[in-house]
Amino acid sequence: MKFILTLCIGNICRSPLAQGLLAQQLPNHTVWSAGLGALVGQPADPLSIQIAASNGVDISSHRAQQINSFLCQQAELILVMEQMHKTQLEQLFPSVRGKTFRLGQYGNFDIDDPYRQPIEAFQTAYASIAQGVADWVPRIRKLS
Hints:
Elements: E1 3-8, H1 14-25, E2 30-35, H2 46-54, H3 69-74, E3 77-80, H4 83-92, E4 100-102, H5 119-143
Helix pairs in contact: 1-5, 2-5
Family: Belongs to the low molecular weight phosphotyrosine protein phosphatase family.
Enzyme class: hydrolase
Keywords: Hydrolase, Protein phosphatase
């Protein structure tokens, strides 16, 4: 399992953070991120960039991209932020069934969208994303 995709809505807050953390912890893997309704071409939210940097992760070069069939085909694992994202993605691209999971699956949690909220919402999202990444990384390593 070498190709991993993270997914949220706009691809500027949560999925870039997850992408950055996963890429940092899995340097021999290719990690992408995308959005179901991406703000295509936009950089990561300044608060996501700030929180990532304060945790040693650089997502400053990130640019949002829309989910597409190529990314779905290439990804061996797709990690979404909310159950709703999984449902929507599977409706749009039925071929992703069986390889799409919530980042918070093992802790049984969704990661709320901090977009246009105070920094505290971004800190909470980051903590949840970091927990989800910590839960997934050992499993991904075993499968790689």
